[in-house]
From TrEMBL, chains A, B:
It comes from the Bacteria. NCBIfam families: PRK06187.1 (NF004837). CDD domains: ttLC_FACS_AlkK_like (cd12119). Belongs to the ATP-dependent AMP-binding enzyme family. This is Long-chain fatty acid--CoA ligase. The keyword Chaperone does not apply. Pfam families: AMP-binding, AMP-binding_C. Residues 448-522 form the AMP-binding enzyme C-terminal domain. Residues 31-397 form the AMP-dependent synthetase/ligase domain.
Amino acid sequence: MLGLMQDFPLTIEAILRRSERIFSSKTITTQTVTGQERITFAALAIRARQVGAVLDSLGVSADGRVGSFGWNTANHIALYFGVPCTGRVLHTLNIRLFPEQLAYTVTHAEDEAVFVDRSLLPLFAQYLPQLSTVKHVIVFDDGSPAPLPDDPRVLRWEDVVGDQADFTGRVRDENTAAAICYTTGTTGNPKGVLYSHRSTYLHSLILQAPATFALSEVDTALPVVPMFHAMAWGLPYACVMAGANLAMPGPGMTPAALLDVMERERVTITAGVPTIWMGMLPLLEGRELPHLRRVICGGSAVPKSLSEAWRTTIGLPITQAWGMTELSPLGTVCTLRSELADLSEDEKADVRSTAGLPPMGVEMRIIDPETREELPWDNEATGELETRGPWIARQYYRTDEPGEQFSADGWLRTGDVAAISGLGYMRLVNRTKDLVKSGGEWISSVDLENEIMGHPAVAEAAVIALPHPRWMERPFACVVLKQGESLSKDELLSFLAERVERWGLPDDVAFLDEIPKTSVGKFSKKTLREKFADRQLPD
Amino acid sequence: MLGLMQDFPLTIEAILRRSERIFSSKTITTQTVTGQERITFAALAIRARQVGAVLDSLGVSADGRVGSFGWNTANHIALYFGVPCTGRVLHTLNIRLFPEQLAYTVTHAEDEAVFVDRSLLPLFAQYLPQLSTVKHVIVFDDGSPAPLPDDPRVLRWEDVVGDQADFTGRVRDENTAAAICYTTGTTGNPKGVLYSHRSTYLHSLILQAPATFALSEVDTALPVVPMFHAMAWGLPYACVMAGANLAMPGPGMTPAALLDVMERERVTITAGVPTIWMGMLPLLEGRELPHLRRVICGGSAVPKSLSEAWRTTIGLPITQAWGMTELSPLGTVCTLRSELADLSEDEKADVRSTAGLPPMGVEMRIIDPETREELPWDNEATGELETRGPWIARQYYRTDEPGEQFSADGWLRTGDVAAISGLGYMRLVNRTKDLVKSGGEWISSVDLENEIMGHPAVAEAAVIALPHPRWMERPFACVVLKQGESLSKDELLSFLAERVERWGLPDDVAFLDEIPKTSVGKFSKKTLREKFADRQLPD
């Protein structure tokens, strides 16, 4: 027997309608090349409808893919709404991808139009000749004097904008595709994750929960994470839904510029990768941040020392979150449960160094890779982490079969190895592909990196496996020191010897100027492995 | 084009699974006739599965309706989960209904089994002979010595409980019916609102939003509102989802007993009708309630003076909410927006005396009843309030057609007249339908008029609501006698006492020469309300 409730689809248009009605005077502030733009949510809705009308008038297919190549701006948020509310699919292009990879994703998605920020035109123009599916390039003026490419496809927003599309009821099925984001987190070509209106709506809704971001209309959010990253971790949609103001950094992504925005806009919540918070740390002293209540950090594990440094400097530790493009991306958030209120600060910091708790809508399990049996939540047993829920991918775009990552019984295999505590705190031990297997024993490079980064002189550390004649593989540490610090290999090993089992110590250490990063800012272990492919470990 | 997200149904089982995994040590405390019972969420899940197994073993149909006739207890929560997780439909029976109405709802829903608290058996036994669809009555021992009725259908829970049902995947379609609740808020027979798993899941989810109840695992909730009222305003499901402890009052519903629970269990959030909070007010002084953060009040409008008296006594005003059985029931919650932070206390109290803001998932509009045009949100224009959203009814159970209340374009006509401010605060002005709301219960003035007009000496009767210090509203009867007849107030009340429940009798009677009429010859209740605006009801 079916219930007798309204058949009301969970769509992105419903988010926009609400914001327009209830939160019309909330604002989005954008740092542009030349200054600042502040628009209301009422104006955002108009701009989103203008985006829709432009796509209609250009004749973009009813379910066509539309790329965005932009900074974090109000215009980009207008695309987040305007494209899917017309039934089309927003493809957020990663501006840091290698040219061949970017061209691959645009062509694979068959993007018909791309919206580009003018200050990114010099970069985008390099790709443009290869983008054969793209019929229209619409340029948003952001104050940059960059010249327009000499290509008939290139149009200026000011020249094409006019009417507003009527979104009413365009998307009736909440399972309609809304956006696509390509993940580079796996081997081979980037793979497309195709979000639906339903998954986006539910993912946005959960960010209001106290256990996640606790977003509400009292907030002003600063999404530092680029908007081409997994829908910028849900913030653009969730803020518009919750009525939270948005402070968009535009091209100004230096720690100092971001701190200026945080002070001026009284930012209450922000989100980005560890590198950002590490770079901001030396600049925190003397800044006026009394409104800041949650600094979300994801993309890579947050070293305990980094979170503690924030806590001791401004009284606010970092809130770790874990996710994947395939998870929309939210998987877990590390908020402290009431049962842990009496822990010491150091014990609390240990809990904060885990990936945290899954919100309602994300189910987790850990699986023994050999037996495929589920393992207990005792904080000891480690197994491959699998997840399921309404905002988790079931297949990549344009693949005939779900593939290995999407196992038969409806769970996504994350490729991460994890332990889970009795309270539900998930601790990433490693990527399945990023463990060091030494003489039959697994060594967690993540744990070792955390220990190395616990040394006061160390800024960053990445551990990779190198071949070893006797142990098959041994850990090798790549270390970046903080400016002005010095540290020898022996000093580091002595430091580690008190914290790590003898057999888990790195066999050798390389001191580098920087750890190479991927296009999404993660440590590129692939590059390190290539760089040190011929390195001989000492006997 | 459809998205490629997991087809993960939003079911009540998903709520239970989560609570069992993440919140197994959270607790439900129940005040029983003889003492207190405290169980964990882990034990709740077991009990819910036992409910399922009992229904299976008794042979209740796969989608059969199962009644509950009980206080607010952990057992009742086990029914909230155990019945729908097996695919069956929970019917929460209103223990205060007239016998014929109760029998009507049980028979209309075709309840096959009913779970009854032993202390309610003396009441329930009166109805039992009329309940021809009911094959099994399962009695929960709550410490009461009430005798078991001599009826072969009556079973003791202790005698039938045993196995645990496996819920896994029993409900695959989230639109499956989960529960039915009959509303007496309209004229005529009670009407059944059939909730689905999806509507229940989404309604529970929104109660975590800061703008609604901000429920999280730090909370302990005390649902004072009876669990047969519109799924007890969402608290049982939402608390189990969010990991909030529950403090269940059982039969002890006096203000003093409730305050004892609030102190002892450190209750942070509670919900009930104005009469409760009015009765509690004189007892607040000297109580230790530092944990209390939100007192939700619904069912009738909250007088400004009541909310202000709470604020001046314990520093916490009452949070008004508005809903209907047809809305699962949440329609609006009156939390103060950040834009209003600088208002004076008196101005804030004025805002708090409105019904408040709709959460994500509830859309509102006000309609001119003549032109059917939408009216502006200017806090002045008043029109009929209509709502739509995923937890709003589209039709009553076992009706061939949606009916007048469910207008053609997908909005529910609430029967309330309202104005809405620019910020979205909804203010109820009047009801289109003619009902008296006494202590949270509807009294139909039409039904009462019919009974009065059933007296041989009465020519005409019109019943209006007058304000009452304790019950918020009480019925007041205006009566015109037939020529040459005489009748006293006491004679009329004696006549009615045989036909109407005690609490449904009018508090006072005025004998008039005629009932004022509108231009189309209908009773002008507006004129009567004006005429008796200053009339004091007798104590």
